[in-house]
What does this fold into?
Amino acid sequence: MPERHALLSPSRAHRWLECTPSVRLEEMFPDKTSEYAEEGTVAHKVAEIAALSATEQISEHGYNDLLSMLKKNKWYTPDMLEDCTAYAELIRDKWLALKEKTGDATVMIEAEIGFEKWVPEGFGTADCLILADGFMEVIDFKYGKGKRVDAFENPQMRIYTLGAYETYGLVYDVEHITMTIFQPRISNGVTSDEISIDELLTWGETYVKPRAKLAFEGKGDFKPSAETCKFCKAKASCKARAEENLKAFDEGPDVFLLSPEEAGKLLERASDIEAWLKDLENYVQSSLLSGAKVPGWKIVEGRSNRAFSDPDKVVETLLERGIPEACIYKPRELITLTQMEKDFGKKAVAEMLGGLIVKPAGAPKLAPESDKRPEYTPTDEIIKKFEEE
Ligand code: SF4
It folds into this structure.
């Protein structure tokens, strides 16, 4: 995978398209890596070679050599290989289906694309492109498991698609475009969206182009929200975000008790407050730990729990005193399904225990109206339970 990164990268498009000054503000902060990012990089490399092998672009021998090198990485797991193999199989099936339909189809893994026509210095790498006469599909592999990323109206996917169309689309006279996200660690994690060439190009010209220009120049209005600020490097010290969160308290209720409608409105306006306070806390704490003074705050020693210094000696002593083992050890407990899948692999667990796995209905959970899940209709029993609490 190329190591170059565009300033206005597709992966951050959801932020710079909304909050255009964020890109230049973020330049003031160092790049940080996380364990999730390191794991994601390894998974992308495994996915890349699995896809190359499944589409006959590297030999079995070459694949095994590359895989054995990746297996030495601390983030590699058999589960990762299983997920990446499923991604490769999806690509192969789509490629073969399109080949059958059109007579010829090309699949490109880690395809370099350019979208400078709409985004200054815009370039990137699409995980997978499948091209055939009149057709194009852009597939993105996502290894995150915290948050579902849906392909529907996804700006990152659309910018990849603009780049793919600009770079290869004319050769194939593309008319039909599909964008697919493959996110194996999220249930039902394969989502797709379609867009016409006209709609895509209009979106690029009328929405992306002017906003990318503003973003590149560091101009435009700050647009703080829980979504845009979540991964912004400026999130802890950004004044626009602080002001937006404090606004939630501007219009105080004029009666003593909040109605459910007023509570709902407050929740909506305060959706970023919890995350913002956590970011402020981390910011002040890391400033103090690096030696800065922050009036009103200091670092103290946190709580700690007592522990046995020598667990084997503890067992020996208790047994000598005649205390039975059953009173010393925790009762035997079945490991969780997730742990089992980690230990034996998802496929093996599904084969052995598929008929014994159930997914009970989830407990009712508050969600904003924009949430894609269908509305839950509570049973009388659940309403009664909530009223009792
Ligand atoms: S923290 Fe939010 S409002 Fe501030 S620059 Fe970043 S995305 Fe924009």
